[in-house]
Write a structure and sequence with these properties.
Blueprint lengths: L4 E7 L3 E8 L4 E8 L11 E2 L1 H19 L4 E8 L4 E5 L9 E2 L7 H10 L3 H9 L8 H11 L1 H8 L3 E5 H9 L6 E3 H4 L5 E2 L4 E2 L1 H7 L8 E3 L2 E9 L2 E10 H8 L8 E5 L3 E8 L10 E8 L2 E10 L3 H11 L7 H7 L8 E3 L17 E3 L7 H25 L6 E5 L6 H11 L2 E5 L4 H13 L6 H8 L2 E5 L5 H19 L1
Parallel strand pairs: 1-5, 5-14, 9-12, 15-21, 21-22
Antiparallel strand pairs: 1-2, 2-3, 4-7, 6-8, 10-11, 13-14, 15-16, 16-18, 17-18, 19-20, 22-23
Helix pairs in contact: 1-6, 4-5, 9-14, 11-12, 12-13, 14-15
Length: 492
């Protein structure tokens, strides 16, 4: 098994990457390409599905050439989840841009649904674990059918295929032979019944989505399709949405285990067992994975803006030259100087679910500097996470510690601030590419390299460093109060 490699395609929001892992969890090669972000209108975000496929093909070929395609045992795929692609199943060509998970164009439509039937959201949540929010795929499909003639025409003639990004990639990697989606991604569409893990006829009718356009729902591990990479037929044996993959990569395999991924957004998942959970505090219920037809579930809180807040400070305001500079600046001041930053640059996610909310920087004085603003932006990540941890506790899932991953947690100051904000031990893994790691673990299980996820985690996952709270409860409460006052101003 020592020479066998697992090749992961990690199709994220800002880049697509291929990473080759050994069965011991070591990264031996990787390649990445940035994805072009398209902003055709305020609150709209699109990707070119053709570009996603071309760049994904390029990074797979690059890594396969670097390690030797003959060493690759299997492929795992993980992806930005709610982003939806539209293509012609006869030609395989995209019909339009993909509508990205961050896109808010369906906010009015969601509002109309809730206004027309005040009880509808509760009914939808009972079936799907989700809320009526533009975040999820079904409303995006509805908008495309209503506004893009090429999509509507394909639907009328039976040519339309839709799917989240992993579905689009599997279709292309299999040469159009497999139109499938794994259960974790399907659970983010507003179209899947959470208990049965099947498409729901009532939800399909509610959103007017052609059932024939939808992919088949499959397990997260097993032989999902066969890909052609570097002249070899290689099985695709693992697939999961990025946040579920990260939870698997962090070894959150038992009820109560908790992880947060800090990338473009932040997503917190708590393993909730083998029965669909119910949140009374505006969290989401979702499929953590499905193996052998049996699902495991999670409670999730979504923060729409995390790393993208730092990107905005760099590219929008120009007050930092690089993301790494944020750590230095945050350390250069003893506190935030009374400055609060609520980074509602794409609305507010859980537990507020206010798509129309807008960002706020407040508490400025003549003594405020860019360092205070940058520190407040980083502190916002801890406070937003505390909002979610509080909601989890209210739902009966208290946190004992937090496992973190994603590009932002290379920042040691941020990790310490998370521990201080939450009053919890924060653990960072040896390999922070836990999203890709989780996809590799699934692929390993699906290919028979590991008997189960626990065996895969024991072989591949390991902790790197722990951060312990270093402030007292009174200081933590004061910071919490400052944040809550700022949030109240945004929501007013």
């Amino acid at each position: 098994m020592t020479d066998q490699l697992l090749l992961v395609l990690d199709a994220g929001t800002t880049s697509t990457r291929a990473i080759a892992f050994t069965a011991a969890g070591e990264i031996v090669a990787s390649a990445a390409r940035p994805i072009t972000q398209h902003y055709p209108a305020s609150g709209w975000v699109e990707h070119d599905a053709g570009e996603i496929w071309a760049l994904s093909r390029a990074v797979l070929d690059e890594v396969a050439a670097a390690v030797g395609a003959e060493r690759i045992t299997a492929i795992g795929i993980t992806n930005q989840r709610e982003t939806i692609c539209f293509w012609d199943r006869t030609t395989g060509e995209p019909l339009s841009h993909a509508i990205v998970w961050q896109d808010r164009r369906t906010a009015d439509y969601c509002g109309e649904l809730k206004a027309t039937d005040p009880g509808l959201e509760a009914q939808v949540q009972a079936k799907t674990g989700l809320l009526l929010d533009p975040y999820f795929s079904a409303t995006k499909i509805r908008w495309a059918l209503d506004n893009w003639p090429m999509v509507a025409d394909a639907a009328r003639t039976g040519r339309l295929a839709v799917g989240t990004v992993e579905s689009w990639l599997i279709w292309n990697l299999s040469g159009g032979k497999a139109h499938v989606t794994d259960a974790t991604n399907a659970s983010r569409t507003l179209l899947m019944d959470l208990a049965s893990c099947q498409w729901d006829e009532d939800l399909i009718a509610l959103f007017g989505v052609p059932a024939t356009a939808l992919p088949a729902i499959v397990d997260c591990a097993g032989t999902l399709a066969t890909a052609q990479v570097a002249g070899r037929a290689i099985p695709i044996t693992g697939a999961a949405g990025d946040q579920q993959a990260a939870a698997i990569g962090q070894g959150c395999l038992t009820p109560g285990a908790l992880k947060a991924t800090y990338g473009t957004g932040c997503f917190l998942l708590a393993h909730a067992g083998d029965a669909p959970p119910v949140s009374r505090n505006r969290l989401l219920a979702t499929v953590a994975w499905r193996l052998g037809g049996a699902p495991a579930y999670a409670l999730e809180g979504a923060i729409f803006v995390a790393g993208s807040a730092i990107q905005w400070l760099r590219d929008g305001l120009g007050i930092i030259a690089s993301s790494a500079e944020s750590e230095t600046l945050a350390q250069s001041v003893t506190d935030n100087g009374g400055v609060s930053f609520v980074p509602a640059l794409a609305g507010l996610g859980a537990p507020y679910w206010q798509p129309d909310a807008r960002g706020l920087i407040c508490g400025l004085s003549g003594g405020s500097t860019r360092a205070h603003i940058v520190r407040a932006a980083l502190e916002a990540q801890g406070q937003q996470t505390a909002d979610l941890v509080d909601a989890l506790a209210a739902d009966g899932v208290p946190a004992a510690r937090l496992r973190v991953d994603g590009g932002m947690v290379a920042n040691n100051w941020l990790c310490q601030d998370l521990a201080d904000s939450l009053g919890l031990v924060v653990e960072r893994p040896r390999v922070i590419e836990t999203t890709a790691m989780g996809a590799a673990m699934l692929a390993g299980v699906g290919a028979g390299l590991f008997a189960d996820l626990a065996s895969a985690a024991a072989a591949m996952a390991a902790a790197d460093r722990s951060f312990h709270p270093a402030i007292d409860a009174a200081a933590r409460a004061a910071r919490r109060a400052q944040w809550q006052a700022a949030i109240a101003r945004v929501l007013a």
